[in-house]
């Protein structure tokens, strides 16, 4: 390497040392958007401690995380990674932000509203939705055939993902709606249609081959199903 090349290389390296790091750009953009580390964690689908590690430059970004984080921060991935250009160069600012929703188990669903604050966001897989939902919203993967129909009407087949809103209002507001419920003594929640007929309440399947379940005792309505997502293979 010639002396000129060596000098140019040294100057380049030294200049890079004084430029912003990836972590500093993440922090800068986050603060511009008035977002907390928890906000970033929930939208990307990681723990808040992972965001701290990014902003401290202790952990690098994978390609997948870079794209997700760039979307959440509404910035150009090249700017975020290399400091090239301006944050909003060559990007389209979304008018609606997709919200990642944690996919939880049917065992967790009945007590989710009490336990979600203590849960680690990094422990879950996430699915995106553009619905306006509370921070307590969750998703479930449907099991069984009780909500499957073959008559052209609403059908929620096994394997579909349902997006659930725990803040559903009053019980009368969800009469006739699809809900997630858990009866006392049951280990898991279930998905059914809530039917209120005078003093009687039922959890009704959509599949006529299954029988309605009468609510006779304590029953927790964990939330109202707001969206059904079905992937076609």
Automatic annotation (TrEMBL):
Listed EC numbers: 3.4.21.88
Positions of the HTH cro/C1-type domain: 25-80
Principal EC category: hydrolase
GO molecular function: DNA binding; serine-type endopeptidase activity
Keywords assigned: DNA-binding, Hydrolase, Transcription, Transcription regulation
Keyword Aminoacyl-tRNA synthetase assigned: no
Record keyword Nucleotidyltransferase present: no
Recorded superkingdom: Bacteria
Protein name, entry field: SOS-response repressor/protease
Species of provenance: Proteus hauseri ATCC 700826
């Amino acid at each position: 390497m010639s002396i000129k090349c060596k000098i140019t290389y040294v100057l380049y390296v030294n200049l890079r040392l004084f430029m912003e790091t990836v972590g500093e750009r993440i922090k800068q953009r986050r603060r511009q958007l008035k977002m907390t580390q928890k906000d970033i964690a929930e939208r990307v689908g990681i723990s808040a401690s992972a965001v701290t590690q990014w902003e401290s430059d202790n952990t690098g970004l994978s390609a997948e995380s870079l794209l997700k984080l760039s979307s959440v921060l509404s910035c150009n991935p090249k700017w975020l990674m290399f400091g090239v250009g301006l944050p909003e160069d060559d990007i389209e600012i979304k008018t609606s932000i997709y919200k990642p929703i944690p996919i939880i188990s049917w065992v967790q669903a009945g007590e989710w509203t009490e336990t979600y604050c203590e849960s680690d966001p990094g422990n879950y897989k996430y699915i995106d939705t553009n619905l306006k939902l509370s921070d307590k919203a969750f998703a479930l993967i449907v099991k069984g055939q009780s909500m499957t129909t073959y008559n052209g009407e609403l059908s929620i087949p096994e394997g579909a993902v349902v997006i659930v809103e725990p803040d559903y209002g009053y019980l009368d507001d969800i009469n006739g709606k699809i809900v997630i419920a858990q009866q006392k003594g049951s280990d898991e929640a279930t998905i059914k249609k809530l039917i209120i007929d005078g003093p009687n309440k039922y959890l009704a399947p959509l599949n006529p081959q299954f029988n309605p379940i009468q609510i006779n005792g304590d029953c927790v309505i964990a939330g109202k199903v707001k969206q059904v997502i079905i992937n076609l293979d």
